[in-house]
Amino acid sequence: MPSRSKGLTVAILGCGKIGQAVLQGLLAAALQAPTTTNDSATNPHPLVDSIQVTVRSDAAVERVSHATRPFLAGAGIGFPGVEICKGDRNRAIALRADIVLIGCKHTALAELLADLQGGRGDLCRSHGRDNDQMIVPGSSPRVLVSLVGGVSAETIARQMNGQDNGDQGWLVTRAVCSVAAAVRESVTVLSDTEAWTTHSAARGLVTALFEQVGIVRWLPERQMHAASALGSSSVAFFAGIIAALAEGLGAEGDDETENEDDAATLPLQVALEITAQAARGAATLIHHQRAPQEIVAQVSTKGGATEAGSAVLESKRVMEGLRECTVVTAKATAGLGATSSQGRG
After folding, report:
1. pLDDT for residue 166
2. Which helix (H) or strand (E) holds 216?
3. 115 and 109 Cβ atoms separated by less than 8 Å
4. Nearest to residue 164, comparing CAs of 139, 132, 192?
5. Mean pLDDT throughout 176-196?
6. At what angle do helices 153-161 and 109-117 cross, to 10 degrees?
7. What is the spatial distance between Cα 323 and Cα 126, in angstroms, rounded to a whole number?
8. Quick check: 192 pLDDT over 70?
9. CA 345 to CA 109: how far, in whole Å?
10. d(CA 12, CA 18)
11. What residues contact residue 269 under an 8 Å CB cut-off, 6+ apart?
12. pLDDT at 17 over 60
């Protein structure tokens, strides 16, 4: 862990879709309201001081650069520095980082971990430990957070620290978050293993880091596949549902032109905005402890319009399909772990 006289250096290795979303969310947090932690009331400092990113190709460098430009254009004093590099610098960047995020595809995970594992001795020495020296409670292991779907924290820890998982340099967890991290509206679910109960300072910093991009929950590893289906994949499902609802009464075209045929429709963009806000309202009510069934009952009246629409959902077995969708998605997520060691991305 870093000296708290400065902010964290965060590495995002293999910055794919989720890694890029987290990067954008961290920059948005710094831009909107620079977050500080305090060793004392008179010595505030930024949570994140520097973000170093690796990608595999020149095209990916340009992709990530393009995604960060709007934030960097408005940066002021104390804004995190951002460095984007090719993947052949993974090990060197990990050496300089306080928290390492792995954001590659599951098919590229084995190669990236092998790259880091090859420098395990150097990584340990950089913290003043010999290769065979164990981390004990109260020491400062390096923190590695995997954003890779389907691969358990224990699997990664064993590869990085040896088959006996002897904690020789890396404190590993797994994070499930969504592309909504880019707008600081993700839920991040972190795998809560026994090791994290003895490293409260590291746990606090990881929690604080991901709180910059949304809300945070720690859950047992056995629940992570379900959390991935509900917290990450479901963002795509919700987007599809919102689009379908809007398309029912929305149409592409010139919203300045009106005629009798258009009376029952809205411009598609307007329909999307209305539907998305309604979905946000439903979600906010649930976050305020309103039961979904209570919301349905409050909106619906016997013989009314909402009841008529709900009957269509029932006849089409939409709700049943959504329940099955989450189960299938969770099982598919579990299957990703089996293939993560087979590909080289």
Report:
1. 52
2. strand 214-219
3. no
4. 132
5. 95
6. 30
7. 49
8. yes
9. 8
10. 10
11. 250, 255
12. yes
pLDDT digits (tens, 9 = 90+) for 91-140: 889 988 999 999 998 889 989 998 887 644 343 333 333 333 333 333 46
Termini Cα distance of the chain: 31
Consecutive H or E run containing 266: strand 266-267
Q: Which amino acid is at 237?
A: F
Rounded CA-CA distance 110/156 in Å is: 9
Say which DSSP state 229 is in.
Answer: I
What pLDDT score was predicted for residue 215?
A: 97
Residue 317 tokens read as 């077995």
Nearest to 172 by CA among 184, 182, 158: 158
CB within 8 Å of 8: residues ≥ 6 apart: 2, 47, 48, 49, 50, 98, 99, 205, 209
Q: Encode pLDDT of 33-60 as tens digits.
A: 544 454 444 445 578 999 999 999 999 9
Residue type, 329: T
The H-or-E segment that residue 253 falls in is: none
